[in-house]
Amino acid sequence: MSKLYLVPTPIGNLEDITLRALRILKEVDLILAEDTRTSGFLLKHFEISKPLHSHHKFNEHKTAENIVNRIKAGETIALISDAGTPAISDPGFFLVKHCLDNGIDVECLPGATAFVPALVNSGLPNEKFCFEGFLPQKKGRQSKLDELAEESRTMIFYESPHRLVKSLEQFAEVMGEDRKASVSRELTKLYEENVRGTLAELIAHFSSKTVKGEIVIVIGGKLVEKKKKEYVKKDRM
């Protein structure tokens, strides 16, 4: 049956792709990719030869209608991003909504995404959390930071290497230098690094080195005074 598949791809280690993902990519009529060059290397590695079309944030509004028409005509199409699960801080939401609005079946496969291992690795409470993705670069950034300073759940952010230290400093300004946090980079790759500590300690660590790779920042939520005292006491035991 014709439908749209959302297929997660590895965030680094190619062994993390699922058998089901490989089967779907081999069976579909067309694969939509954020960057056809990046995805081309992945498909070649797994000996998958299918038509590959570009689908990214700059053209998704223009191409969505054509994709819907092709699926309605009987084609099965897969959407992949450069790494991880489509629509998680990557293109995908608009196409999914457009397909659903047109009565087209959409199926998302489970698979790799960077924020889950970063959250689990952090050692911070993970029974409740909020995923913020990339913060606004300019307009609305400060108000968003002020709002998040009162957030009680563990918070997860994506960030680029060259903005990491600046973002950590901004978090420290609004949340306090002693707020517990973790930074994960190059997840699943050879030089994976997970650094845990206070925001002050993380700033010191990453200010003294050149940072490369994809970044996930995990920050503990605000604790009410009673819980904070219990948390500190437990931490010192």
Briefly summarize what is shown.
The chain is an alpha/beta fold and 237 residues long. It has 9 helices and 10 strands.
Helices and strands in order:
Blueprint: E1 4-6, H1 19-27, E2 30-33, H2 36-45, E3 52-54, H3 60-72, E4 77-80, H4 93-101, E5 106-108, H5 115-122, E6 129-133, H6 141-148, E7 154-159, H7 164-175, E8 180-185, E9 193-198, H8 199-207, E10 215-219, H9 225-236
Parallel strand pairs: 1-4, 1-5, 2-3, 2-4, 6-7
Antiparallel strand pairs: 7-10, 8-9, 8-10
Distance between the termini: 58 Å
Number of separate strands: 10
Summed up, the helix count is 9
Mean pLDDT, all residues: 93
Structural notes for this entry:
- With 237 residues, the protein is an alpha/beta fold.
- 38% of the residues lie in helices and 19% in strands.
- Strands 3-2-4-1-5 form a five-stranded parallel beta sheet, with helices on both faces. Strands 6-7-10-8-9 form a five-stranded mixed beta sheet.
- Helix 7 (164-175) packs antiparallel against helix 8 (199-207).
- The longest helix has 13 residues, at 60-72.
- The chain is elongated.
